[in-house]
Amino acid sequence: MAPANEVHDFHPPISHCGLFWTVPVPQGGLSFSSDGNSFTLVMRSVALIDQPGFPKLDALGTPATMSFKLVGKSTGEPVKYEDAPKHFRFTGTRAACQLEAQVEVPSIGFSWKSDPLSTSKCAFAIMGEEVNGRYYDS
Amino acid sequence: MNEVDPTGDSHRVLFGNAGLSPTRRDILKSSAFALLPLATALPNHASPNQQPMTANGGTDPYPIPWLDRFGSHNQAAGIGNEPGHIYHFKGRVVRCNNFTGMGTDNKGNRIAFGAPSTDYGIMQGEYWAARTTQHGAFVHI
Questions:
Q1: ipTM surpasses 0.90
Q2: Which of A70-96 are b and which e, b meaning 16 or more Cβ less than 10 Å from the residue's Cβ?
Q3: Is beta strand B62-63 parallel, antiparallel or unpaired with respect to B119-129?
Q4: How far apart are CA B96 and CA B41, in angstroms?
Q5: Which residues contact residue A41 at a Cβ distance below 8 angstroms, ignoring those fewer than 6 apart?
Q6: Is the pTM of this model over 0.90?
Q7: Which of A15, A32, A65, A114 is the best mutation test for B, with the most CBs of B within 10 A?
Q8: Which runs of E-coded beta strand occur in B29-88?
């Protein structure tokens, strides 16, 4: 739930098919290390909406853009989640992730830039392999 | 539709009033019949604004079918929760949330970012859509 003092909330629109706040990563935007234990995701000028009133159904969404860099590294601690009725299985490890971002909301003349990547923290992260849906039983 | 008869007899042929100028009644009758081909053709010709549809559906990924408490196809990050946002998927995933940090706006104000719901999710691999396998990388922001 968003905190009471939240002034901005940036996310992609929900797609026509219902895919929730999820967008394609452009070619070359995502890279994993050869051992698969670390990754870097860089995206520039992603079209988003600033919707601080979410999840109210009538929450106003203002066009915005965001550029960001997200990095992560496995801690090596194994993790496995499986839910047969929901047909998903995740096998991986815990991870440590950090984020730096820059946002712009042109219509209100607002922009914001985070401090460098190394100053951010993330309380929960996992990385690994998942199968779900029709792939769950195969 | 306007059709021109090179003999100049187009009025007689079209309105069936040989040798005479067409009456207003003739014009109205003819106009009504002229609309028939268009009227019968409409069901078979889609609006020019309507996009053609594929028989097998689009190639966009399917969302997770069940709903969260807000009625959205969203899986919260957390222990035991499904990390992905795409159904019929197999591949690499990353799920992380509860980011915190600081930043500065264009007026020099120091503004913190992050909340328990500040989350990201990465999915890279194979998914099923349009009745066949697709490949791609996606990020939940």
A1: yes
A2: bbbbbeeeebebeeeebbbbbebbbbe
A3: unpaired
A4: 55
A5: A25, A29, A30, A68, A69, A70, A71, B120, B122, B139
A6: no
A7: A114
A8: 62-63, 86-87
For chain A, domain boundaries? 10-15+28-135
- Name the E strands within B10-131: 62-63, 86-87, 89-105, 110-113, 119-129
Q: Which residues of A touch B62 (CB under 8 A)?
A: 17, 19, 133
Pairing of strands B62-63, A121-132: unpaired
A100 vs A118: CA distance, rounded Å: 8
Residues recorded for chain A: 138
Is the CB of residue A12 less than 8 Å from the CB of residue A21? yes
Residue carrying the six token digits 């929730």 = A20
Q: Contact, B70 vs B111, CB < 8 A? A: no
Of A41, A100, A111, the CB nearest to B122: A41
**Does residue A26 have a cis bond before it (omega within 30 degrees)?**
no
pLDDT of residue B50: 73
Query: Could you list the mean pLDDT of each consecutive 10-residue stretch along chain B, which spans 141 residues?
Result: 38 35 48 45 56 82 93 94 97 97 97 94 97 97 98
